[in-house]
Amino acid sequence: MAENKMLCLYVFESLLDDREDDFSYEYMNFLFQTGAFILQNTKSVSPRITGYVENIIPLFSTDNFRYHYRISKEMFEEILTKIGACLTSKHGGGIEGIPPSKQLLIFMCYMSNKVTMREIGHYFGIGQSTVHVVLKRVNGAFNENLSKIIQWPNFLEQHSIAQDFQLLCGLPDIIGALDGTHIRLSSCIGGDNDYFNRKHYPSIQLQVVVDSDLMLRDIYTGWPGSTHDARVLRNSSLFNNATAGQYFDVNKYIIADSAYPLKAWLITPFKDNGRLNINQRRFNRVLSSAHQVVERAIGHLKQRFRRLQEITVHDLEEIIKTIVSGCILHNLCILHHDGVEDFLTIDPNNGNPNNYPNVYPDGRDGIQRRQQLVQGLP
After folding, report:
1. Strand partners of residue 182
2. 21-30, long-range: CB within 8 Å, 24+ apart, which pairs?
3. How many CA atoms lie within 13 A of 220 on its CB side?
4. How confident is the model at residue 46 (pLDDT cuts 50, 70, 90)?
5. For the segment 341-366, what is each residue's pLDDT rounded down to a tens digit?
6. Which of 30, 233, 264, 282 is most buried, with most CB under 10 Å away?
7. Among 2, 8, 3, 6, which residue's Cα sits nearest to residue 122?
8. pLDDT tens string 236-290
9. b or e along 148-178 (b: 16 or more beta carbons within 10 Å of the residue's beta carbon)?
10. Inter-CA distances, 31 with 8, 56, 69, Å
11. Which residues does 69 contact at the CB level (< 8 Å), separation at least 6?
12. Of 197, 221, 201, nearest in space to 209 by CA
């Protein structure tokens, strides 16, 4: 039993969320008492835990489940209902013998922690290669079946969002806040040094637009970390649709920082050259206060689904799918009011590592629109 306890300690401790999190030794003792019996040591090499999903997960309280898997049991069951059929097959054998609920648990363990696939395999009693196949399958199911949860607001929704932003900061007609963030990679994809950002670590760009409720309304990802934020924007469907006169109701716009070009539909702050007047400085402060919603949303995304703090796979397609899945999970948490406040934070290290100024000219219509907003400040 002493050896079993030591093995339990290694496995469960390796999957703790973060060494800085509060760690309940009472809970570990609970796991010892209820989980030691599931260890099987019939093989002389690489013993595995069995029965964890069947025998231990049902004993988790609501708080314990959410602590480890970052979503409530109710939300887990709803996701399983929507994608469970995609995780089954009639062919049998191999991964097909793993129930959809267990596949989803494996995926949530991966998304919620920074542990390796090998450690997840030990945890769930399967091989590392099987973990990889499960993650790829669940990622595909998320992207194919739940991506519509990230949706641009229609004109009626834009009116409601604008009212909320106006209550928040006093400016009218804002329907979202735009920003980019970097998803750290363990190494450059294909050895391409373009993935190194200005802070000298490899990353991939994620551009998001967030509404007043912290919902992600538009996402765009896949560009290497060295790419300027404004260039990412110009290659996105958001830019193409906005330039074509689509997406935005009359006078509606989104806000961003000074890394982006000023447009009638994209309002940025005045560049502080030391000669700003009182009204311009005040406008910048108001805009900054409204822009914090996107910073908080990115903080929630990375704090809750910590796989997005660093992705260790090397396939670009799977990296993109993992990022999209994390964004889908973020929106589900917002919609379900699933303890979002527990993970809200503004990470001081989350800012754009490149910190490049805007490289594209400001639009004349944008300059006029911003001046109208300055003059209309209450």
Report:
1. 205
2. 27/64
3. 20
4. low
5. 888 776 555 555 555 667 788 899 99
6. 233
7. 8
8. 999 999 999 989 999 999 999 999 999 999 999 999 888 999 999 999 999 999 9
9. ebbebbeeebbeebbeebbeebebebbbbbb
10. 8, 8, 16
11. 76, 105, 108, 109, 112
12. 221
Q: Phi first, then psi: give them for residue 267, nearest 5 degrees.
A: -100, 130
Model confidence pLDDT, tens digit, residues 76-127: 999 999 999 999 865 545 566 899 999 999 999 999 999 999 999 988 999 9
* N residues, the chain: 378
Cα–Cα distance, 219 to 206 (Å, whole number): 7
Please tell me the distance from the alpha carbon of residue 207 to that of residue 227, in angstroms, as a whole number: 12
Q: What pTM was computed for the model?
A: 0.85
